[in-house]
Amino acid sequence: MNSPLMQYRSLFPALRTHTMLASCSQSALALPVSKAINDYQESLLQHGGNWEEAIGRTEQARCEFAKLIGAHPEEIAVLPSVTAAVSAVVSALPDSRKKQAVYTELDFPAIAHILKAQTEMELSVVPSEDGMIPLERYETYISEQTLFTCVPHVSYTSGFVQDMKRIAEISAKKGSLLFVDAYQSAGHIPIDVKEWGVDMLAAGARKYMLGIPGTAFLYVRKELAERLKPKVTGWFGQQRAAMLDLTRFSYADGAKRFETGTPAFISIYAAQAALSLVNDAGTDRIHQEVKKLSAFAYEYASEKGLNLTGPPSADDRPGMISIRDEKAAETAALLRRKNIVCAPSGQIIRLAPHFYNTADDLIYAIDELAEARGI
């Protein structure tokens, strides 16, 4: 499984001593990202302040994410987390006779927490089946009374990837706004928000985008952003003339109106460097490599007798292998002693390779996992 992307493997020092297979939770740290973190610290140590430089890095990160998803920079807001992005979006939903919000059983729990806090909303939950959702269920659960629909591009437990373009078509036909949680896809699956026709999309930096916690990006289609008035905002979400004026309130143009206060600049330095690396490698190439590795791992784990869950085809599950384990946290701790870093969630062990991984990484991890399970 020689890959041209292996030229990047040397940029990840942890791979010399550890088998890193937790990209669905935290990717390995690359040297350019580490350097960016140090650059932030050094700029403060050497110069005492770095506001203008940090603002410049923020704009660079905004542009890199826009490039990653096929958007314009003015359609991107920089926020601390996807949870913050969803909260800001929900606060801006227009007054409407429609009072229904739709989410799915595959969504990360924070989505449900935020929507359940909106006491005036009627909630409808799209059921899943074996970690998947048949497309026709969206036709049933999104109705003419639906104001807001939230779906994950990729399930955080099963790795199931959904057809965003088709779901966007259904949502638009029913007159619902569509929000896409791309936290588990951005960085290893190509995204084109214009081609898909989605209204909003968010992703955080720490997973497949190779960054660290503290930075997320929110896309809001420009025409829509200009109509929305978020109640969760702040001085960064204002027009420049109003930012430091106590008497004025004037939303910034585009998605920037969803920004709040001073961002975590150290995380933004990391995100800018990480996104630059991802864009340099190319998500098309990354996607093909990760899908190939996942297909191999699924077959090998099946041969070893592990209890797999989620879609059997790598086309439907391109970046994650999910293995049932009632003691997932304990098993993950055992693997950690062998320097294997995976991502347990509930009663599932998740193996999530990235473009820097090899088939040998997965063989080693699956062999050790099978031994830990007594298989």
Summarize the structure.
With 375 residues, this protein is α/β, with parallel strands linked by helices. It contains twelve helices and 13 strands.
Main attributes of the structure:
375 residues, alpha/beta, seven-stranded mixed beta sheet, 13 strands, globular
The oligomeric state of the chains shown is single chain
Total count of helical runs of at least 4 residues: 12
Strand order of the largest sheet: 2-8-7-6-5-3-4
Percent range for β-strand residues? 5-15%
Succession of helices and strands: EHHEHEHEHEHEHEEHHHEEHEEEH
Number of distinct beta strands: 13
What class, by secondary structure content? Answer: alpha/beta
- CA radius of gyration: 21 Å
Distance between the termini: 26 Å
Major sheet description: 7 strands, mixed
SSE blueprint:
Elements: E1 19-20, H1 31-47, H2 51-69, E2 76-79, H3 82-91, E3 100-104, H4 109-116, E4 122-126, H5 136-141, E5 146-152, H6 164-174, E6 177-181, H7 193-196, E7 200-204, E8 216-220, H8 222-225, H9 265-281, H10 283-303, E9 308-309, E10 321-324, H11 328-337, E11 340-341, E12 343-345, E13 348-351, H12 359-372
Parallel strand pairs: 1-11, 3-4, 3-5, 5-6, 6-7
Antiparallel strand pairs: 2-8, 7-8, 9-10, 10-13, 12-13
Helix pairs in contact: 1-9, 2-9, 3-4, 10-12
Outline the structure in words:
With 375 residues, this protein is α/β, with parallel strands linked by helices. 38% of the residues lie in helices and 14% in strands. Helix 7 (193-196) links the parallel strand 6 and strand 7. The mean pLDDT is 96.
